[in-house]
Amino acid sequence: MLGLAKYLPEFGWEPTIITAPLNTRPDPKLNFKFVETRFDGDVFSFWRRLFGAMNFDTKKSITEQIKQSAGSGERVSWADKIRTLYQEIFAYPDTEKKWLKPATVSAVEVARKEKFDAILSVWPVTAHLVAKKIKQKLQIPWVADFPDPWSTNHFYPYGKIRKFFDTRLEKQTLKGADAITTISKQWARREEGLLGRDKVYDILNGFDPEQFDHEEIPVSRKFSIVYTGKIYPGKQDPIKILLAIRELLNEDKISADDLEIKFYGEKLAWLEAEIDRTDLGGVAKQYGPVSKQEALVKQYEAQILLLLGWEDQQETGVYPAKIFEYLIARRPILLTGGSADEDLREVVAETGAGVSATKVAEIKKAVLNFYQEYKKNGVVVWRGDKEKTKKYSHKTMAQKFAAVFNGVIGKQNGTG
User: Fold this and answer.
1) What is the count of structural domains for the chain?
2) CATH of the domain at 340
3) Statement to judge: residues 116 and 181 lie in one domain
4) Comparing 41 with 101, which gets the higher pLDDT?
5) Predicted confidence band at 26 (pLDDT cuts at 50, 70, 90)?
């Protein structure tokens, strides 16, 4: 949203963002308005307070802390299942449902004071319900955006009964939208089929082009392989890179003295167990969550950026946000994954930003090639195409959204 709002004015649109209270203040250089509403907390607020009283760190994943205290190394444990069941019953339509009333009141109040030409609602689901109410009250054209699908989500965790109600609410809600956007052609076609619409627009996410220059940050002296962000159990497989590195070490083709494998994100007990099982505790480490800015710096410093692709065919059309961050970093990308990675492979190939490898043997070959270059030159060179990479920018994204907004205004006024 920040990237979109930052560049929309270049294409004739002045944004106002209505949001729950912000944890950090926006950059004052960003020339658009924020309206912060009341928010009484999500459906887990009570449990965070309870676990906080039990000396759990409420800033970290409570589920992972329970799994660690219970000694569970499973990817999906009983704690995960209980949390999902709780959400299935009490988090309908989503965990932020208590935001509906204060957000609607604030949005209508602001919209009556100022003239708005269009509404854009973005995830979570409650935001779309807010936008529907604003449109019903004020008759402002409405665009609903889906960075992730609703009932057809690739990571949909609930059973058939909940899915029935989610699908029904999605259809009822979005029939009032003047336009719908999502991030990939596959998802757009899926939404068209579900909703019976002629056109759902696909607008890819991207990166801020102003972050593209960062040569002052030096690359790591060691052969560092860095991953930042969440890992989805059953959907992504970090074990492949561990097995490939273990075999290369056993074959004396790389040296542990040169090597670092760094995971930044939520610490996972099952991943730690796999690191131990492959005897890579000396070179592979989970560092836990870091700030967005620190994650970007770690990416800039990496010799190689690890992008865990999708192993499940249902993930076709899914673009993780980190692919665009990795393009900013201009460090070579190693994309691993399965047959669902066609879209990611296309981005990596088109930009020349790295290589793709799906099997352990292919990953070994790619890592060895990178390592040999590192040993020869002290750094692995990024060989991407800057101009083709800039295609995946927030500015391009904002231009496409502006075109959709222009279209719904024309439609509303009977001129297009």
Assistant:
1) 3
2) 3.40.50.2000
3) yes
4) 101
5) low
